Amino acid sequence: METILFLTHPEDDGSLGRSALETLTGVVELNRQLSDAKFVAGFIGDDVSTAVAEASGCGAKTFYTVSGPDFKMSRCASDTAALEAICRASGATIVVAPTTSRFNRAIPGVAQRLDGRIDTHVGGFTVNGAELRIQRGYYRQRMIASLTRTARPWFLTFDSGVFPKWEGAPVAVQTETLNVKIGDELRKTNVTGYKAPLASVQTIRPDAKLLFVAGVGWTKKQADGQVHLEEAAKIILHILDKSGASLGSSKSLVDQSSEGQGVFSFMSHLNQVGQTGSTPRHPKGLAACCHGEEPHVVGWRFIGERRVINLDPNCGWAQGKADVLYVADAFELVAKVSELL
Ligand SMILES: Cc1cc2nc3c(=O)[nH]c(=O)nc-3n(C[C@H](O)[C@H](O)[C@H](O)COP(=O)(O)OP(=O)(O)OC[C@H]3O[C@@H](n4cnc5c(N)ncnc54)[C@H](O)[C@@H]3O)c2cc1C
Question: In whole angstroms, what is the distance from residue 28 CA to residue 17 CA?
């Protein structure tokens, strides 16, 4: 019999984040489909009562908690100790956690301590009786693998955007509190504050409704035979500011900066979308001055609606990859859209 353990942590306000709630939906479904399985849940954090209440209707038999100020911040040493305690107490054979930056750092270490195996970025699963098969994308190889394991415990981190958010009415549940002692040696790392760029210069916004992608065309000679880098930067920043869009890029554009050419200071490889870049999930996408070659477009597969601006009516996007292609000068069109916004 498998024991499925759902692991989670609250966000700063005490509630469960989107990724945790989506993973919970997946785990509830997994428990429903897997024959002869037991379902339990585990929570770590400063005060986990709100998070437990939010998930209380999920059907888990036991709710394990490790809480207190020592577990408030994301710190690998204390998180690993807390998660290990929950895994051992529950006797879990399948451990499922959301792909959060906090868990990405801690869960692999827990798998190591329990001599388990881990598969990250799980994008779906199928169940045949008592056999679980997971799906995982190997983006660079452009493959989706379907795999199963006999080794236990089997740790899985579920990607966001795969399942809808869990919504269930709270019910009264008893929690089982585990006492995990954190010695001074584990307290060596402390969060003393945050240093983050201003929201206005943070161009990667995973929750934005729109992904705006810039291609290398912005840096090419235009109709007047000149390059207009400064104007391009102004237009791109303006549309980001006006629309609240997240900024993506083609590989060619971000590569130019690493090759020593001063291009756009607000753009780095983190913005790159595609086979060797990211695979963002936004309801809509708009690409401008980008040709739409397959290694780039493969990164768009989770974008709901794709629109494109290109001077060339025969660009790669025109080959059935975009929903709408505007054959137009992006400098003029994007500036006009920003003005209207
Ligand atoms: C193994 C491998 C992995 C790769 N991985 C990635 C990846 O992850 N992501 C990625 O993006 N690429 C990737 N590439 C590169 C990819 O194949 C393309 O070379 C790249 O995406 C092209 O970038 P681009 O469209 O910005 O540039 P270009 O192909 O040069 O296109 C520029 C476009 O801008 C248009 N344009 C110019 N001026 C204007 C204007 N004023 N108005 C409107 N349009 C204008 C032009 O018509 C042209 O179509 C990979 C390649 C390989 C071999």
Answer: 17
Q: Which atom of ligand 1 is nearest the CA belonging to 292?
A: 25
Counting ligand 1 atoms within 8 A of each CB, the residue from 257, 270, 289 with the most, and so the one to mutate, is: 289
The rounded mean pLDDT for the chain is 94
Rounded-to-integer distance, Cα 87 and Cα 319, Å = 50
The predicted structure's pLDDT at residue 256: 85
* Ligand 1 neighbourhood includes 48 CB (under 6 angstroms): no
CATH fold label, 2-188: Rossmann fold (3.40.50)
pLDDT band at 266 (very low <50, low <70, confident <90, very high): confident
What phi and psi, each to the nearest 5 degrees, are found at residue 227?
Answer: -95, 140
User: Is the pTM higher than 0.85?
Assistant: no
Domain boundaries in the chain? 2-188, 199-340
Domains 2-188 and 199-340 share a fold: yes
Does the pLDDT value for residue 199 go beyond 60?
no
